[in-house]
Specification:
single chain; mainly alpha; 3 helices; 81 residues
């Protein structure tokens, strides 16, 4: 009975499945954390995109004649453009 290992199968003991679940749970949590971090760092460029979009909207409003030159310049300064 050399391969029996005391009745514990592959030698993981009676709680081996618990450790396997914990291991894979930690792996999955780690992958989710990395993905969230990557999305967060990529999402920081959204602020620049929103400012560009706001400036484009302002330029469109000026081109349509909805606002005059003074208002355009004032709002453009407010946007930092």
């Amino acid at each position: 009975m050399i391969g029996n290992m005391g009745g514990f199968g592959w030698g993981m003991g009676s709680f081996g499945w618990v450790f396997m679940i914990l291991f894979w749970g930690l792996v999955i949590i780690g992958v989710v954390a990395v993905v969230k971090w990557l999305i967060g760092t990529l999402g920081s460029s959204d602020e620049v995109a929103r400012q560009t979009t706001a400036l484009q909207i302002l330029e469109q409003r000026y081109a349509r004649g909805e606002i005059n030159r003074e208002e355009f310049d004032e709002k453009k300064r407010d946007l930092g453009g």
